[in-house]
TrEMBL record:
InterPro entries: HDAC_classIV (IPR044150), HDACs (IPR000286), His_deacetylse_dom (IPR023801), His_deacetylse_dom_sf (IPR037138), Ureohydrolase_dom_sf (IPR023696). It comes from Mucilaginibacter phyllosphaerae. GO terms for biological process: epigenetic regulation of gene expression. This is Acetoin utilization deacetylase AcuC-like enzyme. Gene3D superfamilies: Histone deacetylase domain. The lineage of its organism: Bacteria, Pseudomonadati, Bacteroidota, Sphingobacteriia, Sphingobacteriales.
């Protein structure tokens, strides 16, 4: 069964200027339900992640200031919006949804978080609309509970997973792979275990060939017990922040290739959705829904 973490708080409204990207969190499950790809039984609502699991990844002082809404104005500007109790609650539910998704992935092969991919959050900072790093929290949860010995993070969002890279820079059990736009945010990159920096305007064939020549070798060499996949759709040509030139079909082929690699190697995969900023919400929703369709067709 395809299990998907979703809670109405994922679509919590933000201040003016930030509300549009949040619409997808309501529209994507609605579209999949409308098509019959999923039913309500596929959706689950996560609770708040335990503080002890947050502290496996994030600095205690940073978490306490985030929790108590006492981060400085400068720190809040780096995150990109003012703090609120609801936004913090949203983050802790997303983090638990990714942990739960790992457990479902062990059972079913693949599982999703309808939000997540908060890869700009580092050990003691938030950035780029990310406050807690959901996949890093889940990876450390698995390691700490002896549920996995080796983990591969495949970050195909158009923006580098700088927070994830920083968190795991000295952790050999976690291999971080980020394939992202070279001249895009964040402008001060961290060093992943493997960074593939893409030139502006890269198209379908070059992108897919690069991915297909890289990912199988990473899986063979690292032998992960679980793969985290960050499936941002901001690689689309239509994306106003992405600077790449991929079609929706190529984006779906990307997803299918990742899932085929996971399935053929019998490696569970947890998927967090990441970014998407095309001017037309229908383009964002369709590209994200394609990720679910690809997994559903291959696994179920």
């Amino acid at each position: 069964m395809l299990k998907i973490a979703f809670d109405p708080i994922y679509a919590h409204p933000l201040p003016p200027g930030h509300r549009f990207p949040m619409l997808k969190y309501e529209l994507i499950p609605g579209q999949l339900l409308h098509e019959g790809v999923i039913t309500q039984s596929n959706l689950f609502s996560p609770v708040s992640v335990d503080e002890e699991n947050i502290l496996l990844t994030h600095d205690a002082n940073y978490w306490q200031q985030l929790r108590d809404l006492t981060l400085s104005s400068k720190e809040q500007r780096r995150i990109g919006f003012p703090l609120s109790a609801q936004l913090v609650e949203r983050e802790v539910r997303i983090a638990q949804g990714t942990i739960d998704g790992c457990l479902y992935a062990f059972e079913y092969g693949v599982a999703f978080n309808a939000a997540g991919g908060t890869h700009h959050a580092g050990t003691n900072w938030g950035e780029g609309f990310c406050m807690l790093n959901d996949q890093a929290i889940a990876a450390n949860y698995l390691l700490n509970n002896n549920l996995a010995k080796r983990i591969l993070i495949v970050d195909l969002d158009v923006h580098q997973g700088n927070g994830t890279a920083q968190i795991f820079k000295d952790e050999p059990r976690v291999f971080t792979f980020s394939m992202h736009g070279d001249k895009n945010f964040p402008f001060r990159k961290e060093r992943s275990d493997l960074d593939l920096s893409l030139a502006d305007g890269i198209g379908d064939n070059e992108y897919l060939n690069l991915l297909s020549s890289t990912l199988p070798g990473l899986i063979t060499n690292h032998q992960p017990d679980l793969i985290f996949y960050l499936a941002g759709v901001d690689i689309l040509e239509s994306d106003k922040l992405g600077k790449l030139a991929l079609s929706k079909d190529a984006c779906k082929q990307r997803d299918l290739f990742v899932f085929e690699q996971c399935k053929s190697n019998n490696i569970p995969v947890q998927v967090s959705m990441g970014g998407g900023y095309s001017p037309q919400i229908k383009d964002i929703v369709e590209a994200h829904c394609n990720t679910y369709r690809a997994a559903n067709d291959l696994y179920f």
